[in-house]
Amino acid sequence: MEQRMANTWRMTVNEKKFIETALESGLRIDGRRPFDYRKLEIKFGKDEGSVEVHLGQTHVMAFVTAQLVQPYRDRPNDGTLSIFTEFSPMADPSFEPGRPGESAVELGRVIDRGLRESRAVDTESLCILSGKLVWAIRVDLHILDNGGNLIDAANIAALAGLLTFRRPECSLGGENGQEVIIHPPEEREPLHLIVHHLPIAVTFAFFSYESSVVIDPTHHEEAVMGGRMTATLNSNGDVCAIQKAGGEAILQGVIMQCLRIAAAKAGAISDMIKKEVDSYNTKRALLKIKRHSTPMDVDRGASDIGLKQNSSVDQMRVDEFSGHHVQRIKQECEEGIAKQSGDVESETKLSDKTLTNRSNEDTKNFIGGPSSWDPYSVGVDSDSLKASLASQGMPMPIEKQKDSKGEETRTEAKPEDAPENNNPKTSPLREAESAEQANGEKTLKDAVKAKNRKSRRKSHSSSGPS
Amino acid sequence: MEFVSPEDLRLDGRRPTEMRQIRAEIGVVAKADGSAMFEMGNTKVVAAVYGPREVQNRSQQLNANVLVRCEYTMANFSTGDRMRKPKGDRRSTEISLVIRQTMEECILTNLMPWSQIDIFVHVLQADGGTRSACINAATLALADAGIPMRDIVTSCSAGYLNSTPLLDLNYIEDSAGGADVTLGIMPKLDKVTLLQMDAKLSLDTVENVMQLAIEGCKAVADYIREILLENTKQLQYRRGT
């Protein structure tokens, strides 16, 4: 039933008294005001649907995965959403490995109630074949560091994961339309989950019989608090769930006041999550464009590329360099085919680090097209990219460029890439790029594609990832 | 599906602000230090309290307070379909935690350090509102065991269907997908200990539904006090005073 108390860290009486006395004067030990949240950071991982959330010292990771399963008998048209929590012992000495303890189960169920009962995630859209096959979305929450207020952090992580997760698109085929074909992400763009609204959990801690109420308690405050209440609201002001599992008794008026404060906080956090997710999606869209390059013949010629270059370059983010850049690129276009390695070498001279690494990379993956510049390496906004994609196929140099420069070009360092080509600016970004590349973040796909273009390479080298 | 008819009648013929019939009995488990059976409509639960007694697990004992443990289980036959896993599943774990923390708040824990109080709650028939019935039963059982308490804790559930706040939901109304608010108060202090809510509601509706649930809790509190008074009179009679 209860965790073994032997592993629990106990707070000293002095510390307890200190925190309580400070709260009576409205001071919190980390300097926050009573209704302030700690600093919130949301980082996205490599896979879609993987998120890391830092709320002050609390560190939570969420992973979203999907699987095709049979639906429940009483809901044949609905997909399922399940939350699994893992309280890693490294987060807190009182967490036991193995079966989730009481607080782990509570956390999972609070987040589950907030998401499922309020219909935040549309489950009907997850149905493929009614009564036979539906998507089962699974959210795994890993607590890595218990700095207090795990519910809020885990909730934000789960939401961010669900917003950025994409499930493969599938279509019905086969003889009688009963066969389900799951399309790999290269074939068809994976789909977002439909999330109607964002239920944000806001946790309140009560001390000394209502003398103080604070938001977002830290680990120390949690050890001192008399009771806790978690209110899950969305930015529309709807209450999705409330959890006050016993603990200090409070007046109804105080509860309503807390709900109102929570409504305001929920709006702020909701905006922050949306902002982070949007910036992630933009980054991803840029990357996607590169990934989806169709094999374009090198003989299409520099003119085409130059043409495209102009149209896309016009909308470069790095406006100041645009004119200069266009010229330079045109120049490189013409000499590109002839002076591959030369350009590559000059490029590499510009960077401080891993010179040899880069040049090796470039020559290894040299395919015979203009590779010393990346027409799309400058920050082109995704709309223009999509427009040009629609009109023609992607030029191959883009992909070659990606191969040669590695995954570095994925990051927003890309806009800096072009000016760096032109100006021998050595910037930390450059080094970061090289460092990233040095990590050898090549996917299997790169290996395969490299193989395909083996015939066009001037130099033979190992076709696998470096 | 219509849960409130135009004549303001629910599926079982109750009014929206009407509770189901309550019945309680003290002393149903002879072996336990305190026990009670509580019925709310078709929901029937039994609670047994053992304590204060010596802590069974030395590593868990507290030096300032009594250790309160609670276990919530449902009988296999309590629901319509036979349950495969009556205890240890996540819902039961959560409800055990909730009941424990609620009762901990009303027990005067600092009077019995180095001891342990076990509360076992078993659901015999589940027809909505099991959580509330369990808390009410536990209160009675604790009182029967003579454990010093700050105040009794009573609990009641309320919901919101067809734009009407409803008091004391049964299983059909509960699984309708509308809101379900379970509230536990200490009536003398007029303070809320337990509050659990799911499904989307606007802030004003939450206030209304909460208010209705508090009324329900107070009605249950009156009934519980009657039962306790009756029980005390019985004890007095048996003692021969």
What does this structure look like?
Chain A is of the alpha+beta class and 466 residues long. Chain A contains 14 helices and 14 strands. Chain A has helices spanning 13-24, 102-116, 150-164, 219-224, 252-291, 301-313, 319-336, 340-350, 355-364, 382-391, 396-405, 414-422, 428-438, 444-452; strands at residues 40-44, 50-55, 58-69, 80-87, 127-129, 133-145, 166-167, 170-173, 179-182, 191-192, 200-207, 212-215, 227-233, 238-244. In chain A, the strands form four sheets. In chain A, strands 1, 2, 3, 4, 5 and 6 form a six-stranded mixed beta sheet that branches. In chain A, strands 12-11-13-14 form a four-stranded antiparallel beta sheet. In chain A, a hairpin with a 4-residue loop joins β13 and β14 (238-244). Chain A is elongated. With 241 residues, chain B is α+β, with helices and mostly antiparallel strands. Chain B contains four helices and nine strands; from the N terminus they run ββββαβαββαββα. Chain B has helices at residues 90-106, 130-145, 171-174, 203-239; strands at 22-26, 34-40, 43-54, 67-74, 115-125, 154-161, 164-167, 179-186, 191-202. A five-stranded mixed beta sheet of chain B has the order 1-2-3-5-4. A four-stranded antiparallel beta sheet of chain B has the order 7-6-8-9, sandwiched between helices. In chain B, β2 (34-40) and β3 (43-54) form a beta hairpin. In chain B, α1 (90-106) packs across α2. The longest helix of chain B has 37 residues, at 203-239. The termini of chain B are far apart. The A-B interface holds A 1-2, 4-6, 102-103, 105-106, 108-109, 113, 117-119, 227, 229, 234, 237-252, 255-256, 259-260, 263 and B 59-62, 67, 69-71, 90-91, 93-94, 96-105, 181, 184-186, 189-203, 206-207, 210-211, 214.
